[in-house]
Design brief:
The complex is a heterotrimer of chains A (about 650), B (about 230) and C (about 270). In chain A, helix 3 runs parallel beside helix 6 and helix 5 packs across helix 12. Chain A starts with 6 loop residues before the first strand and ends in a 14-residue tail after the last strand. Chain A contains 17 helices and 22 strands. Chain B has one domain: Up-down Bundle (3 helical TM bundles of succinate and fumarate reductases), CATH 1.20.1300. Helix content of chain B is about 70%, strand content about 0%. Chain B has eight helices and no strands. In chain B, helix 1 packs parallel to helix 8. Chain B starts with 18 loop residues before the first helix and ends in a 5-residue tail after the last helix. Chain C has two domains: about 110 residues, Ubiquitin-like (UB roll) (Roll), CATH 3.10.20; about 110 residues, Orthogonal Bundle (Fumarate Reductase Iron-sulfur Protein, Chain B, domain 2). Chain C contains eight helices and eight strands; from the N terminus they run βββαβββββααααααα. In chain C, the strands form two sheets. Chain C has a six-stranded mixed sheet. In chain C, strands 7-8 form a two-stranded antiparallel sheet. In chain C, helix 5 packs antiparallel against helix 6. The longest helix of chain C has 15 residues. Chain C is elongated. Classes of the chains: A alpha/beta (about 650), B mainly alpha (about 230), C alpha+beta (about 270). Chains in contact: A-B, A-C, B-C. Chains A and C meet through helix 3, helix 5, helix 6, helix 11 and helix 12 of A and helix 1, helix 2 and helix 3 of C. The complex binds flavin-adenine dinucleotide, protoporphyrin IX containing FE (HEM) (2 copies), iron/sulfur cluster (SF4), FE3-S4 cluster and FE2/S2 (inorganic) cluster.
Chain lengths: ~650, ~230, ~270
């Protein structure tokens, strides 16, 4: 690997998981060994929690209940709007309520394998253990999970799992889980243990004597930039899929909090691991602002196909069976339309690359319910998928009962994130990272219904237990606004904001975001090659250069200015995009969501290189101009043996 | 930050004067008035039994209960109950009205009604007109103050009043408004008292329509009969 | 799509081929909570029927920015109808002419040549922040006053300890789908938040887990919504007709029922 792109530093390792005991005992052992904070002292300790999604909302509520003084930050108007609200499918838990052979060990095993052997065994095992408590907690909060006639909880199998371990609340599981956490959080706000900062965006981390001690944040309504201090800082700010501009993330989802913490010294792990979801509604026009996911469950009955001939632009209903290519069924006879996300996505891209895609720009494949409608009848299809069909009709203006739906893959989730140890602490002492914002549990590919599980595991059960060990050393020396580190951070934020406003160029922020997104999608999307990544790495610095000399941000900074908000986020996305490409380029293997054209089996499947790449790539920021430093965390598999994934 | 931070919020009001409590007052007083109207319409139909019968009915309501209780006792009780009901109903309506005004001081430039019926939209002004009607009605038929035939017997006052087309028109207008008021009011009261649900909604609405139509038709029978000379 | 603001001329409009619609937008512009706002007219042309309403505003805004004007502020986030962040009055109807969220309303619902009025939610409990963005934190404070089940983390019994009849669970779910968008308040002639509050009272009140706090919850939540300055509900029903999640008026009846029961049982709001 050429040294101009990065340099390699010392390896890192997690030191918190008690590897001296068997994996099943590590979490309880860690809890036992972690120091506690006496309840009377907790009142003297302040914790900042940024984000109110499943991870942040549950963490802030739980820490508040425990008696800590919590300050909670989020950028929307209400904590209930964090993007966790959009999750549809469900949440996994090893309850084995179906008596179908599920267990903590099986969930652990499936997750490690599903992550294509790029996650840390200890973390995943803990996740599987804690999963059962999550369901108990949520039910007690009044989350209206789907139930059976006997009054017990219903489960379904999801994302190709062989057991039914997914709990769900119609197609709105994320919403209902989030409302549970939100209500718990509001209860603490009412009780006075949590101080709320709505519509407030974190713009920098304050590090004092090597410890995270606070944040710089901008009140999005008044525009005021201010500092907030604490004994520990928790980031729960979600994923960075919006690097690609078009994604299933919310418009405001951003990398700003984690990126700026990264620039303050936190290592960023596996930035190139992104998950592309196969069943999204395709792009329609260049004004499009957002992609919408349709539940994967559609693939249970829908059949995916494209015309056999390129350029066949007949009405799909007029294309006879013989001229259709049900390519998933053809290539993967055993799994058919139910192959994992990354495979379904890549094959869709392949057929479109061959020129056989359908719809505007040839970027789409058919998801056809014709056969299912005949087999089950329209009524049954309505009952099962009615709301999804309605959503499709609403967005596209086409009637999916009449004509096959068109779908296309879209960026959906980012497995990469800030590096954390077993305690979920980043490389900056006192800064913890939870939920999608960290890298910890999913390796190179996340299984369906596992992100909600991870967010709530981190927020309700893991962080509140591990953060004590750090806070036991506190309260730390008081710091205030005037502390040089705080003043410097504040200064940095203000000057960046001012700089954005003063460029006064001729291009809109959105146009930069669109250009960056398109570049990333084409060059660092579903399939990456050395050539495409190098192209991207040539172009990104130019985009950055142009951004800082030609962007136009109207208005001023001491008022509600949504363009300014967006500009700051895009500035960070541009920098992050570069690191993503470097990471993707250096990882000369295919694994999970990261598919390198150079590394595939003769049949075109992802080919891992465990010999050389069984590690977490944790990147260190270096000041402008210098290449980032790679720190490797070696991954060892004691309990799940390395094996090639196969879905043939 | 939020624009309405706690400092600007108003202090809590007394426990029981919340908006729902006012609605309950309105529903209960409305139902009381409604029961009175049922009795009233039945009494009015005595007009068709002739002058004597009607006048003695008027006499009877004043003396009912005698000699156990002095004359006017029952009537006075009824009047007190009605006055309390009207005042309570009016107080609740006005105070909710004012609350609504405070709740939206700046009106929309464009606002469309999507679901509300004409009946629900006319509750407030309709109610006020009904109230004015009641005042006028009492001055007309009970005290005779504004009646062209002020000192005559109740029956003659009634005939005198309805022989005047303007007077009749006002009665008819007020009665139609009252009918709409009740049509929405009955449904609204079931909702306010927590007795409505999806299953019952249709039944309640059908009942509200049927009930108010029959009641108002019963009331209208009298003025129209006089107007068309069926009663004189 | 091209736009012109009153007075300034369209840049590309006439020349480019016109596939889309030409529309006149009258949008409420208000700099901040302290000043008075007014309706400002913008002409937009070449609007694709496949655009969402917010995408149409995006395009307008991008032009405004490049022209050196202040873009129209409006709230939005998920753009898939679930976060509840978006919401404006469109032609006098909350979230526009279709029972959905503003972000899911598409321009194919409009006709070439239409004039569209766009205003913020109006209620004194929802002060305008800027243009079309309002502050709905009053709804959160209603939740704070009792819209939860007090169950500290880690204290829950096994999820199967208490079976919940499917019927109740489904009905609770219907109520729980409220996204807190505030359209009910915006549409209600009394600016009442009753439907929102009722949805939460119903959701929690139907679950066995919600029973212990049922009386206090309803009493406190109703007291809080009055305190926030919302109007009282007089059962008009505009709320439910505007609600993108179809929350029904039945919930209001249920709230009233619970409230009367709670008051009778001696529950009083905490002040
Ligand atoms: C459409 C969709 C469907 C999904 N379906 C499923 C599913 O079925 N099952 C599953 O397991 N997973 C699913 N996922 C993934 C899962 O929803 C997310 O990974 C998970 O909810 C992330 O939760 P979080 O708490 O980490 O972050 P989020 O919920 O994204 O919350 C981020 C929080 O951080 C705040 N924030 C962000 N940046 C800043 C900043 N700079 N300053 C201040 N605050 C900030 C935000 O306000 C917000 O409160 C889905 C995701 C999407 C997009
Ligand atoms: C056309 C229909 C009506 C007729 C013919 C009618 C007739 C009368 C008559 C004759 C009296 C006087 C009785 C007496 O003093 O002996 C009376 C009293 C009264 N009416 Fe009516 N009425 C009608 C409608 C209404 C309506 C719609 C209301 C209420 C909304 C109403 C409320 C009253 C009241 C409050 C009194 C006074 C009772 C008292 O003495 O305290 N009436 N009405
Ligand atoms: C005298 C005859 C009257 C009767 C029988 C009557 C009856 C009712 C009833 C049953 C209700 C429904 C209560 C509820 O919503 O729960 C109601 C509502 C109401 N009444 Fe009356 N009312 C009468 C007079 C008045 C008067 C004089 C006013 C004048 C102010 C009035 C104003 C209202 C208002 C504003 C409402 C509530 C509106 C609504 O629910 O939308 N009513 N009335
Ligand atoms: S009840 Fe409906 S309209 Fe009201 S806030 Fe909830 S979802 Fe929005
Ligand atoms: S429109 Fe308003 S009056 Fe009640 S029924 Fe709905 S809140
Ligand atoms: S933007 Fe989330 S509901 Fe419209």
């Amino acid at each position: 690997m050429p040294l101009d792109l990065f340099t390699e530093g010392d390896p890192i390792a997690d030191t918190k998981a008690p590897t001296d005991v068997p994996i099943g005992e590590r979490w309880s052992t860690r809890r036992f060994r972690a120091r506690l904070v006496n309840p009377a002292n907790r009142r003297k300790l302040t914790v900042i929690v940024v984000g109110t999604g499943l991870a942040g909302g549950s963490a802030a509520a739980t820490l508040g209940e425990a008696g800590y003084k919590v300050k909670s930050f989020w950028y929307q108007d209400s904590p209930r709007r964090a993007h966790s609200v959009a999750a549809q499918g469900g949440i996994n838990a090893a309850k084995n309520y179906r008596n179908d052979g599920d267990s903590v060990h099986r969930l652990f095993y499936d997750t490690v394998k599903g992550g294509d052997f790029r996650s840390r065994e200890d973390n995943v095992h803990r996740l599987a253990e804690v999963s059962v408590n999550i369901i108990d907690q949520c039910v007690a909060q009044g989350v209206p999970f789907a139930r059976e006639y006997g009054g017990l909880l219903d489960n379904r199998s999801f994302g190709g799992a062989q057991v039914s371990r997914t709990f769900y609340a119609r197609g709105q599981t994320g919403q209902q889980l989030l409302y549970g956490a939100y209500q718990a959080l509001e209860r603490q706000i009412a009780a006075g243990t949590v101080e709320q900062h709505a519509r407030t965006e974190m713009l920098d981390l304050i590090v004092v004597d090597g410890r995270a001690r606070g944040i710089v944040a901008r009140d999005l309504v008044t525009g005021e930039v201010s500092t907030h201090f604490a004994d520990a800082v928790v980031l729960a700010t979600g994923g960075y899929g919006n690097v690609f501009y078009l994604s299933t993330n919310a418009k405001g989802s951003n990398a700003t909090a984690i990126w700026r913490a990264h620039k303050k010294g936190a290592l960023f792990a596996n930035p190139c691991y992104t998950q592309i979801h196969p069943t999204c509604i395709p792009v329609k026009g260049d004004y499009q602002s957002k992609l919408t996911l349709m539940s994967e469950s559609l693939r249970n009955d829908g059949r995916v196909w494209v015309p056999k001939e390129r350029g066949d632009d007949r009405d799909p209903r007029e294309i006879p069976e013989d001229d259709r290519d049900y390519y998933l069924e053809r290539i993967y006879p055993a799994f058919g339309n139910l192959v994992p996300r990354d495979i379904a996505s890549r094959q869709a891209k392949n057929v479109c690359d061959e020129g056989r895609g359908v719809g505007p720009g040839g970027l789409g494949v058919y998801l056809d319910f014709g056969e299912a409608m005949q087999r089950l009848g329209r009524k049954a299809i309505e009952a099962k998928y009615g709301n999804l069909f309605d959503m499709y009709a609403q967005i596209t203006g086409e009637d999916p009962y009449e004509t096959p739906m068109r779908i296309y893959p879209a960026v959906h989730y980012t497995m990469g994130g800030l590096w954390v140890d077993y305690d979920l602490q980043s490389t900056i002492p006192g800064m913890f990272v939870i939920g999608e914002a960290n890298f910890s549990d999913h390796g190179a590919n996340r299984l369906g219904a596992s992100a909600l599980m991870q967010g709530l595991a981190d927020g309700y059960f893991v962080l509140p237990n591990t953060i004590n060990d750090y806070l036991a050393d506190g309260p730390f020396e008081k710091v205030g606004e005037s502390h040089p580190a705080a003043a410097e951070a504040m200064q940095g934020v203000q000057s960046q904001v001012q700089k954005l406003l003063s460029v006064n160029g001729t291009r809109s922020v959105a146009s930069f975001h669109r250009e960056l997104g398109k570049l990333m999608w084409d060059m660092c999307g579903m399939e990456r090659s050395e050539e495409s990544l190098r192209k991207a790495l040539d172009r990104i610095p130019e985009i950055r250069q142009e951004f800082w000399t030609n962007v136009k941000v109207s208005g001023d900074w001491h008022s509600f200015n949504q363009t300014l908000e967006h500009a700051g986020r895009v500035a960070d996305f541009i920098e992050l995009a570069e690191l993503m490409c470097i990471d993707a380029l250096h990882r000369n293997e295919s694994c999970g969501g990261h598919f390198r054209a150079e590394s595939q089996t003769p049949e075109g499947e992802a080919l891992r290189d465990d010999e050389n790449y069984a590690y977490v790539a944790a990147w260190e920021w270096t000041p402008e101009g210098a290449p980032p430093v790679l720190h490797k965390e070696n991954l060892e598999y004691e309990y799940v043996h390395l094996a090639q994934r196969s879905y043939k | 930050m939020t624009v309405t931070d706690s400092g600007q919020r108003r202090t809590p009001k007394a426990a029981k004067t919340n908006s729902v409590f006012k609605k309950v007052v309105m529903a209960v007083s409305g139902i009381v008035m409604l029961l009175y109207l049922v009795a009233h319409v039945v009494g009015n139909l005595k007009v068709f039994a002739g002058r004597e019968s009607f006048n003695s009915y008027s006499e009877w309501i004043r003396t009912v209960g005698e000699p156990a209780v002095p004359s006017y006792t029952v009537l006075t009780v009824v009047r007190i109950v009605l006055i309390v009901a009207v005042v309570a109903h009016f107080w609740a309506a006005v105070s909710l009205w004012r609350q609504a005004k405070r709740a939206r001081p700046d009106r929309y430039v464009t606002k469309k009604a999507v679901a509300q019926s004409y009946a629900s939209r006319t509750m407030r002004w309709g109610g006020v007109i009904v109230l004015l009607f009641i005042v006028w009605h009492i001055l007309d038929l009970t005290t005779g103050t504004v009646n062209p035939d002020g000192d005559a017997s109740p029956y003659d006052r009634l005939v005198a009043s309805f022989s005047n087309p303007f007077s009749t028109a006002f009665y008819v207008l007020a009665l139609i408004l009252l009918g709409m008021h009740l049509r929405h009011g009955i449904w609204s009261a079931t909702q306010t008292l927590g007795q409505s649900n999806k299953r019952r909604e249709r039944t309640v609405n059908a009942f509200a329509i049927a009930f108010s139509t029959v009641l108002i038709a019963g009331f209208l029978l009298v003025p129209f009969s006089v107007l068309f000379g069926l009663v004189d | 799509m091209t736009i012109t603001q009153d007075g300034s001329r369209s840049t590309a409009g006439a020349a480019s081929e016109r596939r889309g619609m030409n529309l006149t937008l009258r949008i409420w512009r208000q700099k901040d909570p302290t000043v008075k706002g007014k309706m400002v007219t913008y002409k937009v042309s070449d609007v694709s029927p496949d655009m969402s309403f917010l995408e149409m505003l995006d395009v307008l805004n991008e032009r405004l920015i490049l022209d050196g004007d202040d873009p129209v502020a409006f709230d939005h986030d998920c753009r898939e109808g679930i976060c509840g962040m978006c919401g404006v009055m469109i032609n006098g109807m909350a979230h526009g002419p279709q029972q959905t969220t503003t972000c899911q309303l598409h321009m194919r619902k409009f006709k070439d040549g239409d004039t569209i009025d766009v205003e913020p939610w109006r209620a004194s409990a929802f002060p305008v922040i800027k243009d079309l963005a309002v502050d709905r934190s009053a709804l959160d404070r209603i939740i704070q006053s009792g819209g939860y089940i007090s169950v500290p983390t880690g204290t829950a019994p096994d999820a199967h300890a208490v079976p919940v009849p499917k019927k109740d669970s489904d009905a609770a779910f219907d109520a729980a789908t409220c996204i807190g968008c505030g359209a009910c308040v915006a549409a209600c002639p009394n600016a009442s938040s009753m439907l929102f509050t009722a949805a939460k009272v119903t959701h929690l009140g139907l679950m066995p887990q919600g029973q212990p706090e049922r009386n206090d919850r309803v009493v406190n939540m109703v007291a809080q919504q009055d305190r926030e300055g919302f109007g009282g509900c007089t059962n008009i029903g505009e709320c439910s007709a505007a609600c993108p999640k179809g929350i029904s008026m039945e919930n209001i009846s249920r709230l009233n029922h619970d409230l009367l029961g709670a008051l009778r049982a001696g529950a009083r709001p905490k002040s």
